[in-house]
Amino acid sequence: MFDIHNLYKAKSVADAIKLLSEHPEARLIAGGTDVLVKLRHFDDKFHHLVDIHDLPELKAVRLEGDTLALGAGLTFTETMNAPEVRKYIPVLGEASSTVAGPQIRNMGTIGGNIANGATSADTAAPMLVLEPEILINGPGGRRNVSIKGFHTGPGQVALEPGEVLGAFAFDLKALKGLGAAYYKYAMRSAMDIATIGCAAGVKMEGDKVADLRLALTVAAPTPIRCPAAEAAGIGQSLTESTMKKILDALETDIKPRTSWRASKEFRTRIIKTLAERMIYAAANRSGEGA
Amino acid sequence: MIIGTSPNRLDAVAKVSGKARYTEDLTLPGMRHAVLVRSHIAHGLVKSIDTKAALALPGVEAVFTFEDVPDTLYPTAGHPYNLVIEKRDVSDRRLLTSHVRHYGDDVAVVVARDPLTAAKGAQLVKVEYEELPVLIGYKEALAPGATVLHEFMDNNVLRHSVIEHGGRVDELMKEAELVLEGVYHTPIVQHCHMETAVSYAYMDDDDHIVIVSSTQIPQIVRRVVGQALDIPWSRVRVIKPYLGGGFGNKQDVLVEPIAAFCSWKMGGVPVQVALSREECFTSTRTRHRFDGQIKMGLKKDGTFTAFDVKVWSQTGAYASHGHSIAGAAGSKSPYLYPRAAMRYDATTYYANVPSAGAMRGYGQPQVTFIMDCLVEEAAHALKMDPLELRLKNVARVGDVCQFNHHTIHAAGIYEALTRGGELIDWRKKREAYKNQTGPVRRGLGVACCSYGSNTYPAAVELAGARLILNQDGRVTLAMGATEIGQGADTALTQIASEALGIPMDQFNTVTIQDTDHTPFDTGAYASRQTYTSSTAIADAARQFKDKILDLAALISGVPRSALSINGGNIVGSDGEHLVMTLGELAMQSYYNIDFGNPIVSEATHKTRQNPPVYCCTFVDVEVDVPLCRVTVKEAWNVHDSGRIVNPKLASGQVHGGMGMGLGMALYEEMLIDEKGKVLNDNLLDYKMPTIMDLPDLDCAFVEVPDPTNPYGIRALGEPPLVSPAPAVRNAVWHATGVKVDEIPITPKVLFRYLEKAGM
């Protein structure tokens, strides 16, 4: 039993925005895989809910020109199975497939995964590599922001009260030739939260790295890109010595912490190992597909 | 022959179709729900408790605190009562306490009309504590001047014992050509049964309390609730419905007394207590953490001469099974290498952590880990193949165990090790995995263990069986043996079918044990039920058959000596031609005006034999050195459990045990901080392995029939989880050259060892 006082079922995104403005104490619930956990622990910020679960307009997959837009309400399972995802941005589907287990993947949404601001979110690292625009609906209309900088602090994102995350728009032209890979390092192979997540995007031109994007989760209070490591690799050929430079530079990008879940030293070892392996894996995929 | 075949589980369809009703599925009109108020500190005295806000919450009907409960201490261990006072379980628990001894201890209880209101009410009870020092490890708990957890104790040593038969261990160590020593640690783990602890109680007259509970031990629950509430035992009736796993946690009296107490105080209304997963971690039972120091003496040719084992067993806040855990492991271990002498020094101590109790293996996984790690050390020291070294020393039929002077009449561990070595291709892989240098390496490991078939002579062993011939010729089989998901009903029905010559589909097997109605049995634990109950069934079947054939002879006029039962029919001297069907005979037994009576037989068997069983595990692991991760690629358990009644069910039992054993090896540990707080009291942070983390689990049986059982059966339930952990540890050593002297070998633990080794 959950201590839900009011549940307002939204008929559309516009209706959800209206309900949120009428009930400022209310929070959004989509898949419920975070909200119900909060309620199970008697978190009193979640007694009033606006339900956007299964709204068709949040489940759209639209390919228009060079833009692929994924509705924020797509579940992880739907994301994994979407042909457009498989064709153009397979790394996002691969990351979605690492979330928890099948039941959670059938409920949890990619929008919720980003909007809850968790540093461990499985889709956050590939999103940071793929750099979609985030389409936000609010009482004042629509606005677009970049995924880069969207995470503002632990559990915090650049959403204003009353706003609903609508979709992620990927610029496929910019992604052309970019190979990408993701690895979720957790204490077990399913039903777990990442100890470290690492996604890399590499575009090779000849034997030189034309583009390098490296993103990590749980390596800092928010999901991060690694500008120093990227700078150390771009324009270089992917030799062992370049890799060493990338990994050395990476130390300035990350801020892993010691908690009872893992020590800083352990996390650092895993981060470096994953960064190396994912950069090579992404380089191998460079030029494939899109 | 139905023994040795694999008919489907009797409850398979009921369970997969959702028809089987578990305790929480059952409800009664007007049922109330109780939620415990639990301490959020690990050690302290309640200074004040304020229940006003909770009582004011609409829907809350009662709040009871330690001030309301009987001022009596009771034991909770699922052991049969002992007539010898010194051998009884320690009584150290009150229903609710003002002296909290672990994080999650029971201070008060809130009863409400629904579970949510009860939970909210529990949060409104304000408790102030005077904090006391928190003691965790044995060094702190046993330090001179340490705060004593229990008022009736002088220190925190629950019990200390030293057992040594022959008295030659010191002498043998002096004579030994090689002496090795080691220090090893095993973690606190939890059972994680799918169905959490749940019970409800009600009174259907003024005198009797009925308790419906997810328990392995209905008869013991009856007795303990009688003790806790200070009422005659037979005024308590305990009913066990379908059950979703116990693994020893429910071989303890958990929430039954508080459910009974609430109902009793509230005039008999039904009161349910259903614990959350978090409460199962903090406030039911766990596996005892062991710290072990071990020494062994051996000859240069690899012959083991002596073991000197010293263990500290952490029982936590309350005794529960207490010293029995360390004691049982000490008495079962020597059967593995029986020609070596052994001294076993065990200390069980109180500490401010959740209470440890029975858990599958009952101390054996801990002691096996401690002993097997050192045996592997011996193989390295002697440069001997680890499998050869074990083969040289394991039990053979006719050995006399140096520890207790019992002769071993059946032992198949030599054969099991040989078979396992062939199945995993030991020689070839050991050779292939030599001298690896890459980041990802493979390793092969073996470990073996011994176990018992019941609890004798530590406790009384009783098993009851009843057979009833119904009007339609179908046979009701009612057992005291408790079906908890392990398949007891199916295996025992197979045995009854074989004993009577009546097909299995002609049986109605009672799956719900009820202390007022089913025969007496002490419960599902110690891997005992198939071994002990099979003799009771054989005895009851003999009487049953006699009654059937006597009446058949009387009615048919065919001489008694010419009659037998075959395929569920009464047949003549050729064993084939039909004299009458059982249904025809049954109708005569009920309704013949002149002859017969309904045919019922009942037998109770008291076991006074406890033959050892054996198991070994072989694993092939992959270690990703940079990622500090161990993956088990292949795992075999080979068992010697006497004759196997149902190979499919037995394999299921082994697979489950291997999964738990691999969990203990690589994943599972309850983490408790220095303040006694349980950090990972949920299935996200407590890393029980998923199916994705386990390899295909393979098993085999070497069936050495046991002479002490009419069907050649010995025990199987617990042993599967005992030897996987040391096998994995030995394989990791083989793969990396790094020996880890603790479990679980999680990435974080392996990281420490690898960094130390400069890897």
Give a brief description.
The complex is a heterodimer of chains A (290) and B (759). With 290 residues, chain A is an alpha+beta fold.
List the defining traits of the structure above:
heterodimer; A: 290 residues; alpha+beta; Uridine Diphospho-n-acetylenolpyruvylglucosamine Reductase, domain 3; 3 domains; five-stranded antiparallel beta sheet; 12 helices; globular; B: 759 residues; Aldehyde Oxidoreductase, domain 3; Aldehyde Oxidoreductase, domain 4
DSSP helix count of chain A? 12
Oligomer: heterodimer
Distance between the termini of chain B: 57 Å
Q: Biggest β-sheet of chain A: count, sense, barrel? A: 5 strands, antiparallel
Order of helices and strands of chain A: EHEHEEEHHHHHHEEEEEHEEEEHHH
Number of domains of chain A: 3
User: Quick one: CATH class of the largest domain in chain A?
Assistant: Alpha Beta
- CATH architectural type of the largest domain in chain B: 2-Layer Sandwich
Low-confidence stretches of chain B: none
Intertermini distance of chain A? 47 Å
Whole-angstrom Rg of chain B: 27 Å
Taking strands numbered 1, 2, ... along the chain, how are they ordered across the largest sheet of chain B? 3-5-1-12-9-10-11-20
The name of the CATH superfamily of the largest domain in chain B reads: Aldehyde oxidase/xanthine dehydrogenase, molybdopterin binding domain
Largest sheet: spatial strand order of chain A: 4-5-10-6-7
Report strand % of chain A: 25-35%
Q: State the total count of DSSP E strands of chain B.
A: 27
Main sheet makeup of chain B: 8 strands, mixed
Q: Supply the number of structural domains of chain B.
A: 3
The assigned CATH architecture of the largest domain in chain A is: 2-Layer Sandwich
